[in-house]
Amino acid sequence: MASPSIQTDPTVPIPESLLPMTATVRADGHLEVGGCDVVALAEELGTPLFIYDEEHLRARCREAVAAFGDGVAYASKAFLCKAMARLAHEEGLYLDVASGGELATVLAAGVPADRVVLHGNNKSSDELAMAISAGVRRIVVDSLDEIDRIEQLAGPGADVPVLLRVTPGVEVHTHEFVQTGQEDSKFGLSIASGAAEVALERLRASSAIELKGIHAHIGSQVFDTGSFARAAEVLADFFIPLGLDELCVGGGLGVAYVVGEEAPSLTEWAEGTIAALRSRGVAPEVTITAEPGRSIVAQAALTVYRVGTIKEVAGIRTYLAVDGGMSDNPRPVLYGSGYEAFDPADVRAVRSRVARVVGKHCESGDVILPEAQVPPAIGVGSLLATPVTGAYGYSMASTYNKVPRPAVVFVADGIARVVVRRETYEDLASLDV
Ligand code: LLP
């Protein structure tokens, strides 16, 4: 599609800038992604359905590798299944995992352990043992207790390669639930309080651990490059005297979800961050790495729902109820995140009707779009799509009310492949004993 112009009128047809990069409109008005008719996919595979544009995913991975160079990792928490792990690995990214489950998934996908970085503020001994015996590239140490555990597990001479996660004391403009760089945080060790220094001494003195570098992550869905630059300065000042080889700036780049929003590109983010670090004195030999998650996957996907019930509450509002909800997209409920909605069977339709798009769960908070602009022709049985659902949608999905999780399909070159099948009622009972 042509390069986007930023729209601010919410009634306009869904802007191309919020759709995956191979999105086009067919002659019949249907949305096509990866050469596949989205309406036909919904008919064939059912709804709700997550549709990922494989070319978009690959393009963002390549952009990240080109911008940061070797060492950049995909933060798999944003969206992980075996196909996604393989795709990121094929495109040259490392895989950042934040739990034993994410580690097991990427290893099961065939990603070599030396391409994996393990995170977590409370890694268990089992998770650490799994990572050490697999031989992951880095463990990002997040507490003194974790240092004790690694030493007990690995023993003298093991030289487990780690980064130390520090908190730079920078508060960024984003939802407080996804701020991580401030002093009052469960993550990392504070530079300002001296806690980071204490951990550094422990790591330097350890014969089980080899300290490779420093890590920081200031938050997620951050648009303001100034926040990254401020964190870069604090980090650089802390990092330079240590004489280490590697500095990871985490992830956090924001993406546009709704009409009128604009976010820096991965390239702009990388260039700005690297320039800020280098100009503050971080030597050219130091490897600067990052872990983007959302900015790789968010805009690559859309969710397609079917409208099942429309309720007019006289004098108040119209409720459009779809066949998913907070179980496949908890972000509006958790963070008040905004989305857009459109008709994938009539992409060019003007969205002049206001309605509240809700899910099928048994609580009033189950809202996907509190004030959606939708085409007036949307009725019972219509499809309704929400773009930019590729990050923290499926990965945070639940089976609340025993609603099965949707299928996930990758589309490319006219071929759709289901990469995660739809959950069944049997699956839902499969853990019960
Ligand atoms: N690295 C670390 C250490 C992180 O904690 C995170 C995200 C990332 C990288 C990737 O950040 P990204 O590039 O995706 O912003 N569920 C929330 C987001 C939580 C982010 C957690 N950490 C949401 O839906 O907005």
Task: Reconstruct the topology from this structure.
Layout: E1 24-25, E2 31-33, E3 36-37, H1 38-45, E4 49-53, H2 54-68, E5 73-75, H3 82-90, E6 94-97, H4 100-108, E7 116-118, H5 125-134, E8 138-141, H6 144-154, E9 160-167, E10 189-190, H7 195-205, E11 209-215, H8 225-239, E12 246-248, H9 266-279, E13 287-289, H10 294-297, E14 301-313, E15 317-322, H11 331-335, E16 353-358, E17 367-374, E18 383-387, E19 407-412, E20 415-420, H12 425-429
Parallel strand pairs: 4-19, 5-6, 6-7, 7-8, 8-9, 9-10, 9-11, 11-12, 12-13, 15-16
Antiparallel strand pairs: 1-2, 2-3, 4-14, 14-15, 14-18, 16-17, 19-20
Residues 75, 77-78, 96, 119, 178, 217, 220-221, 250-253, 291-295, 331, 335, 392, 396 line the site of ligand LLP.
Structural class: alpha/beta
Give the total of domains. 2
Helix amount: 25-40%
Ligand types: ligand LLP
What's the CATH first level of the largest domain?
A: Alpha Beta
Number of strands: 20
The CATH topology label of the largest domain is TIM Barrel
Describe the fold and architecture.
This protein is an alpha/beta fold. The chain folds into 2 domains: 16-53 and 299-429, Lyase, Ornithine Decarboxylase, Chain A, domain 1; 54-297, TIM Barrel (Alpha-Beta Barrel). It is built from 12 helices and 20 strands. It has helices spanning 38-45, 54-68, 82-90, 100-108, 125-134, 144-154, 195-205, 225-239, 266-279, 294-297, 331-335, 425-429; strands at 24-25, 31-33, 36-37, 49-53, 73-75, 94-97, 116-118, 138-141, 160-167, 189-190, 209-215, 246-248, 287-289, 301-313, 317-322, 353-358, 367-374, 383-387, 407-412, 415-420. Strands 5, 6, 7, 8, 9, 10, 11, 12 and 13 form a 9-stranded parallel sheet that branches. Strand 6, helix 4 (100-108) and strand 7 form a beta-alpha-beta unit. Helix 2 packs parallel to helix 9 and helix 8 (225-239) packs parallel to helix 9 (266-279). The longest helix is centred in the first third of the chain and has 15 residues, at 54-68. The mean pLDDT is 95. The site of ligand LLP has 22 residues, from helix 10 and helix 11.
